[in-house]
């Protein structure tokens, strides 16, 4: 999608915060994504808030489960309402597909 990570600040612990700034050729200014970690369980689960949308922000849960020598990664997003989900649009879902494809490529080189 042509995005570049400009800055990354992460305090990955329950109660910690994060802030990512990402630039895109179509955007005049970098976009900021930020929130806090609600749950951090090493090697198995991360839960964080997405606060850049205010009260309409989602909560993301990522789980990691070992299965037959491989790791299953599951990502879920919970929105406050159907309207908040619709307002978020489909860009994040498209970006997630690209992100996991890039991760697959990286892991294949290890």
Describe the structure.
The chain has helices at residues 82-88, 91-108; strands at residues 4-10, 17-23, 31-41, 45-49, 59-67, 70-78. With 110 residues, it is α+β, with helices and mostly antiparallel strands. The protein is globular, with a radius of gyration of 15 Å. The chain has a six-stranded antiparallel beta sheet, with no helix packed on it.
Features:
six-stranded antiparallel beta sheet, single chain, alpha+beta, 110 residues, Alpha-D-Glucose-1,6-Bisphosphate, Chain A, domain 4
Mean pLDDT across residues = 89
The general outline is globular
* CATH fold node name: Alpha-D-Glucose-1,6-Bisphosphate, Chain A, domain 4
How do the strands line up in the largest sheet?
A: 1-2-3-4-5-6
User: What's the order of the H and E elements?
Assistant: EEEEEEHH
* Total helical elements: 2
* Quaternary structure: single chain
DSSP helix fraction: 10-25%
């Amino acid at each position: 999608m042509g995005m570049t990570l400009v800055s990354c600040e992460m305090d990955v612990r329950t109660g910690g915060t994060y802030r990512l700034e990402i630039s895109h050729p179509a955007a005049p200014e970098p976009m900021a994504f930020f929130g806090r970690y609600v749950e951090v369980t090493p090697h198995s689960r991360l839960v964080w808030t997405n606060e850049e949308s205010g009260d309409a922000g989602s909560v993301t849960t990522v789980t990691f489960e070992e299965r037959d020598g491989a790791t299953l990664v599951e990502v879920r997003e919970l929105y406050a309402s159907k309207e908040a989900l619709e307002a978020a649009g489909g860009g994040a879902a498209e970006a997630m597909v690209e992100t996991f494809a890039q991760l697959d490529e990286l892991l294949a080189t290890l």
